[in-house]
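Saturday, quiet lab. Running sequence design on the structure tokens for the scaffold JK sent over.
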């Protein structure tokens, strides 16, 4: 039986992904590995490094990660065993946090850290996919939030109270995506799942924020459920 959870943290640049990874690491009561993952199609094969001056890796170490690595991979290595063959994965851990691009074909928890929307920015946009057939404009996810539709945990990271309302609207739309049949068919279709997700608004820099606490509890619950037969 598998002994550790694989948790992927995605989101656009500057949304707060690393801040949330740090929060998980700070709250962990057992060894947790952390990897910054970057897709690079110029590579012929995946590559693992651990530069001491890499900003994200340095933050992982300071937050208490038991092991860290930078993992770069081309498209043809997605879903392969390349990540599992790294030096990082030779170490024991209760969980593995992957920030950035996803090199695996599966994960136990998909997290999306989203920024609060800008003025007049919405989660859903309309696109006409087949002009020749005059097909109706179908709903799609706005580019800055691409990937949020597949997350099991969504954290809308706000920096001030002025962003609260916009953050709550993103959460409401994420929930609506799985309840509105037309939206669901347009965006998720056969690849989707109607399993309820956890979506919160949180100030990730505030340890007392209730949304932050709820998101951390969701991540911890996944790790505890997966770890069934690890070393004492």
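Result came back. Writing it out in full:
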């Amino acid at each position: 039986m598998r002994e550790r959870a694989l948790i992927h943290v995605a989101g656009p640049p500057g949304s707060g992904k690393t801040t949330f990874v740090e929060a998980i690491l700070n709250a962990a009561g057992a060894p947790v590995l952390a990897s910054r993952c970057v897709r690079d199609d110029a590579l012929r094969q995946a590559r693992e490094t651990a530069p001491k001056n890499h900003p994200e890796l340095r933050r992982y170490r300071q937050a208490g990660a038991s092991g860290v690595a930078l993992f770069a991979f081309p498209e043809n290595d997605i879903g392969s065993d390349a990540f599992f063959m790294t030096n990082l994965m030779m170490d024991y851990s209760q969980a593995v946090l992957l920030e950035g691009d996803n090199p695996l074909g599966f994960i136990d928890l998909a997290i999306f850290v989203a920024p609060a929307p800008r003025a007049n920015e919405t989660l859903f946009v309309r696109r006409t996919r087949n002009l020749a057939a005059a097909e109706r404009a179908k709903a799609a996810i706005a580019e800055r939030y691409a990937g949020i539709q597949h997350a099991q945990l969504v954290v809308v990271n706000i920096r001030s109270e002025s962003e609260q309302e916009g953050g709550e609207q993103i959460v409401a739309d994420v929930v609506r995506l799985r309840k509105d049949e037309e939206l669901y068919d347009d965006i998720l279709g056969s690849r989707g799942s109607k399993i309820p997700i956890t979506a919160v608004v949180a100030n990730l820099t505030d340890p007392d924020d209730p949304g932050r606490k709820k998101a951390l509890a969701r991540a911890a619950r996944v790790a505890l459920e997966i770890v069934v037969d690890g070393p004492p």
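Notes for JK: The chain has one domain: 5-226. The two ends are 15 Å apart (CA to CA). Ask whether to fix the surface positions before the next round.
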